[in-house]
Write a structure and sequence with these properties.
By secondary structure, this protein is mostly helical. Helices cover 64% and strands 0% of the residues.
Length: 200
């Protein structure tokens, strides 16, 4: 208890880290990555810049946490969108959460692509690359296996190769969206071009 008799507010450390990461994402989406600084993030939160370092060892750690937050949000959306689905329906729902096909995923693409250069310089640290991993690759693999088992895709479908291509376009189409914006039909056409040769 404080001297004035008030009980100090307990701050959830993990929640505060997430709030800081989210503030970085807001600044990046609204003002561009060139405007992302510790001062800008602190201003967005309405706190002193020095208070950030109670939760992070440095600004590179904030960047990592923000990238991980994007992945966490995507994982949550995928779980909700694919619930109760299997095979190609599940795969289509999953890919629509990572390809830039609507306002939310297009904005996310701009934020994510902007992170890559900065994250690449952190790759020498033990967890430097972790936030950028496609954690949904297991979902892609399982969906393909289900599609083969259900007869939606041919028995001889090279599922490992198809999965690698699908994972690649989750990154590649984000870059396309940032450098040469496309409508949803164009992004989805790339997905279909990979799957169509193997459909029954």
């Amino acid at each position: 208890m404080r001297e004035d008799g008030a009980v100090p507010r307990v701050v959830d450390h993990d929640e505060r880290r997430r709030q800081i990461a989210e503030a970085l994402l807001v600044v990046a989406a609204r003002d561009g990555h060139e405007s992302v600084t510790s001062r800008a993030v602190a201003k967005e939160l309405g706190v002193a810049t020095g208070s950030l370092w109670h939760y992070f060892d440095g600004f590179d750690d904030v960047v990592r946490a923000a990238a991980a937050e994007v992945t966490r949000r995507t994982d949550e959306r995928i779980a909700a969108a694919t619930a109760g689905l299997r095979g190609l329906r599940r795969l289509d729902a999953l890919m629509r959460e990572v390809l830039p096909v609507d306002a939310r995923t297009r904005a996310e693409a701009h934020v994510v692509v902007g992170f890559w250069g900065r994250l690449a310089t952190l790759a020498s640290t033990p967890d430097g690359a972790t936030p950028t991993l496609a954690t949904w690759q297991d979902g892609i693999r399982e969906s393909l296996d289900e599609a083969v088992a259900d007869g939606e895709l041919r028995d001889r479908t090279p599922t490992d190769a198809v999965m690698a291509l699908l994972r690649s376009i989750t990154y590649g189409q984000q870059v396309v969206e940032v450098t040469e914006p496309q409508d949803a039909t164009a992004h989805l056409a790339v997905l279909h071009s990979i799957l169509d040769p193997w459909r029954r």
